[in-house]
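Students often ask why we bother encoding 3D structure as a string. The short answer is that it lets us treat folding as translation between two languages. Here is a chain of 666 residues written in the first language.
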Amino acid sequence: MASLQKIRNHGALLIAIVGLAMLAFILGDFLNSGSSFFNRSRENVGVIEGQKIHYTEYEAAKDQLTEVYKIESGRTDFDEDTYAQIRNQVWNMYVMDYTLRAQAEKIGMEITPDELTELCVGENVHQIIRGRRAFAGEDGQFSREAVKGLISAINNESDDAEQNANLKQAKDYWLYWEKAVRISYMQEKYTALLQHLLKANSLDAEFAFNGRQNGVAVDYVMKPYYAVADSLVKVSDGDIKKLYNQHKEQYKQTPNRAIKYIAFDIVPSEDDFKAAETMMNNLKDEFKTTDDISLVVNTNSDIMYDGRDYSEESVPAQFKEFAFRKDAKAGDCTDILFENNTYSMARIMQAGYSMPDSVELKAIVEDGEDQELGWFKAADLPKNIAEPALKGKRGERFTVAIGMGEQTYEIMEIGKPTPKVKLAILAREVTPSSKTYSVIYNNAKQFVVNNNNAEALEAAAQEAGMTVVPQYNLTATTDKVGQLKSSRPIVRWAFEAKEGAVSDVFECGQQFIVAALTEVNDGEYRPLEAVRAELMYEATNNAKAAYLKKELKGIESLEAAAEKLGQPVQHIERVALGDSRFGNAGMEPAVIGKAIAQGENALSEPIQGNMGVYVVKTGAANNAAETFVVETEKAQLASRYAYLPYQAMQLLEDKAEVDDNRANFQ
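And here it is in the second language, the structure alphabet:
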């Protein structure tokens, strides 16, 4: 009872404590929920025109395009450049898709399901579909029935797991190209709309015609800027800053980094060469005499022995003369040869026979249409197909195991027999041993320890006679540094390190790389110092123009200007507003415009041009004698406008609201 009374006495305090505990529980749950929300946002690869692209969606799109590449190329292995191309192609497709959708929604434009069906399987199939080899018939031409057959097949299911996997690959292939058609046609509709809007009217036509026809004869004097000594003018920091502000929009940038790097080549040591030579000498006698050549070669050689038949074209060049000499016979061996860092020797297993080099095959399809496959060389076929195909006769059929099934082929034609030889090759390329690898790595590591800032690294490298390679404008999504293999980690490091830092050792293919971060550019615009040189050139020319104008002040004749500038008077028979060049002086639109504007028989004030300062004296009108045909002029203007819709598409993508976070996932 006493305990109960104590609880009653402290009731208000307990309620407060329980309330705080419940609040903490609720807040904790909210924060955990919020944390999940924020984690989800961090899983977005990017946002394009308000459309979020989740990491799993992006990965699925990459996998889909990878399957497309496999089917289109017939390959399953790709290098890092191809994978980078796939990533960028997927991203660019997202940008184009969502950018077009945003514009289409504003103007009520869409691609209906019926339109898409017509584009894919209708009477006028889109070129994207027509261009796929997978949809070609027996004659090699596009087949609408092949498309319909694929669509029908991918909508079925099978009890066989392997067949289902193949159907999924085919479905991914089709859906990718269907999406590509939709995006491409949306772009075509949008550009067609712009082309319809960008039309010349009669006033445009007349203005363009007059700009070409109405001209005037011109005499002029020009002094180029390079002919004025730099010492005669002064350029202040204020002049540079003023130009920088005027041109600032030209200097917009994506955050980027600049690095310098040195390379330590991972190459074999002298001990590695000796070890490889010793191994070959130890195997030489056994290689020449063994009855189990497959065991000796396939255990020790870089070139496996599979009983292949070499022709004079396919045999390694260093063994051609040996293998195809007149008295060549089984059992003959070469000495140990050394070429291109490889020790090798060859033994003839069979000689003096001939076989065809090529064969034309047809695949026999049960309950379907047989497929002519074309001509194949022996080296292009798997051994289990090549042997029966090249040893058979025209019209014969043979069956081979493929995966979990079988395939029957018919020999349609066989090439002319040519001399062959069976050759066993024992080859060992000299590669860096683990010890050599460690020595080179430790040397690179020690170089980092001894030179731990960018300035010290460059100085030490130059002293050691090493090449210091600069690399500029690395963005967060740059796939690799120059041509360095597997160098994406260097880019990631550059965006995490501080300016002046030196990296750890990176392994990039057959090189160890050490990099120094020399520039960090995170501003919206390139800094003034980065563009000072080009601004100085322009500011100096501006100062020289002002200097020359001052020198010419009060000049009342072209001859006086020529004498003052020390330059000759030059003549142009005819200058018109539509001209792109001012005689031999080059692109000078300001000079052309002012010459036409001042009319006949007039002397200009000094004119600042691109290449120098001009004084122009116009003569009599010199008009062309063409006849104005309004439709002709409109057609010419239309051809000039033709590129504008496509330029507008590029501008839409450039101006789209894009938040690219791919660097966080690469």
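Translate back mentally: Confidence is low (pLDDT under 50) at residues 1-38. Keep this in mind for the problem set.
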